[in-house]
Design goal:
The protein is α/β, with parallel strands linked by helices. 25% of the residues lie in helices and 24% in strands. It has helices spanning 4-21, 84-91, 124-141, 156-165, 232-242, 295-299, 309-318, and strands at residues 44-50, 53-60, 71-77, 103-107, 144-154, 175-179, 206-211, 222-224, 227-229, 252-257, 262-269, 272-281. Strands 1-2-4-3-5-6-7-12-11-10 form a ten-stranded mixed beta sheet, sandwiched between helices. Strands 8-9 form a two-stranded antiparallel ribbon. The longest helix is centred in the N-terminal third of the chain and has 18 residues, at 4-21. The structure holds 2-acetamido-2-deoxy-beta-D-glucopyranose (3 copies).
Amino acid sequence: MLPLAPLLSLLCASVAVGASAVARGSPAGTAGCGTTHFFNGLTQYHSLTSNGTTRHYSIHLPSSYDKNKPYPLVLGFHGSSGIGLFFELDTRLSSSDYTPDKIMLYPDGLGGAWAGANYSVATVPQDLLFVSDLLDEVRAGWCIDNSRIYATGISAGGGFVNTIACSPVGANFAAFALGSGSLYTDATGPFPPSASCVPARSPLPVLEIHGGADPDVHYAGGPGEGGIEPAIPDWLGWWAQRNGCATPDVGKTVEDLFNGTVHHWSWTCGGVPGVVQHWKVDDMKHCWASTTLDLTEIAAGQGTTPIDASTIVIQFFDQFTKP
Ligand SMILES: *[C@@H]1O[C@H](CO)[C@@H](O)[C@H](O)[C@H]1NC(C)=O
Ligand SMILES: *[C@@H]1O[C@H](CO)[C@@H](O)[C@H](O)[C@H]1NC(C)=O
Ligand SMILES: *[C@@H]1O[C@H](CO)[C@@H](O)[C@H](O)[C@H]1NC(C)=O
């Protein structure tokens, strides 16, 4: 029989440590929990070395950041000829309107680009390794809820989010959301199987928002700036099938909104409601959909849209936790 007193004190000690490190009922945090950070609420710039190459990123913590509380993490990927700051400004995802309780992370692509386009500087394995190294660094330095890591991006950055979803690195993420995605690495369906897209698990939640009048990444697919792109409805159907729907149309519901100018598609696949979702804005061009005029809408030569992509993306992420 074990001596009771030492056993009890051991139990009490571990309960006490557990209670001070993480509130009861909270998810387990990463190694970075307990590390103090300053200037919370202000975006801060960092670099890391990935396979011998210096890479840059910025991180934004909620101003109320609690070093002992595990936070959901959202990676935001800028479009071509961009930097993380552009995506942060366009989407306003660092704002407490959207992410009062999330950590935002904005990586910079090499040469302003992400792998996958024919003009990219980095190779796909190189950028995927960067994402993996970046996740290691952030988990070690900040308090992250490992079951709630998400990726979003615009245009070529959205395409790269899909490249992550189609790779083993996608196993780290709970859900993916793309705006006006340039899907260069996933244009060779039909399912099954496409060697260029082997998701780490199924179902894997994916959302895409696209303009029916996009002159750069055509809704109907075809040649784009950096390569051939699939038709958006075809690509959505591939994801429905990858996620366990027998055909692209089974499990799909369509809702027409704003007097028929916006269409929301949602699939239940693999027993998960809304695991694939799509918003089509008929007259929208190549931009980040926003009800408040953003720079991508100005650059695209259009006004605001009836839907707000940042709201939709965060609400989508909030529905999913990595199993
Ligand atoms: C890492 O760097 C080496 C040497 O430059 C290169 O051969 C290799 O392809 C790189 N690996 C990745 C994943 O980019
Ligand atoms: C990239 O691909 C597009 C579409 O196929 C093509 O028009 C363009 O010439 C290509 N550019 C390069 C540098 O290969
Ligand atoms: C909705 O569309 C119909 C048909 O095009 C049009 O007559 C009507 O004015 C529109 N309503 C609004 C609120 O835009």
